[in-house]
Design a protein that fits this description.
Layout: H1 6-24, H2 48-61, H3 83-96, H4 98-102, H5 113-133
């Protein structure tokens, strides 16, 4: 039997490599939205007032989590943030790099200098946005 030439072996190896690369390509396509830190807009069909009323109604009959029946539960605290305010804060969180640090390998490790720097940047951005929203106030 005749031994294949080096050109034929190279072509065969290239063909196998191309075939394996094509088969593996979908695995390099992205994270398939698993753990994706980017916010995804949610279209809600329920109003804020309806959600607040539902939460307060549920809390009236909610389990007391081990407290006796004689202790009254505190009224439900409902956030006053609007969707626009939450979206703006999320943008600041992403722009500061804090999202990447919290979703990275080390997680929210406040002992790391990179995380502390991103957290400080986030706080500075929040303070600047708050100062811009309230032009009559000054930062201390």
């Amino acid at each position: 039997m005749k031994k294949p030439s080096s050109t034929a072996r190279l072509l065969a190896a290239t063909a196998v490599a191309a075939l394996l690369g094509a088969a593996a390509a979908p695995s390099f396509a992205g994270n398939y939205a698993e753990g994706d830190p980017r916010p995804v807009p949610l279209a809600s069909s329920t109003t804020r007032a309806a959600v607040t009323a539902d939460a307060q109604q549920w809390l009236k009959a909610a389990p007391t989590q081990g407290y006796t029946d004689n202790i009254a539960q505190a009224p439900a605290a409902v956030s006053t943030n609007t969707r626009a305010a939450v979206a703006a804060d999320t943008r600041l969180w992403l722009q500061s790099g804090l999202a990447a640090k919290q979703n990275g390998e080390a997680g929210a490790d406040a002992t790391r200098p990179g995380y502390r720097q991103a957290a400080a940047d986030y706080q500075n951005r929040q303070a600047a946005a708050q100062a811009q929203a309230q032009p009559g106030t000054t930062l201390r």
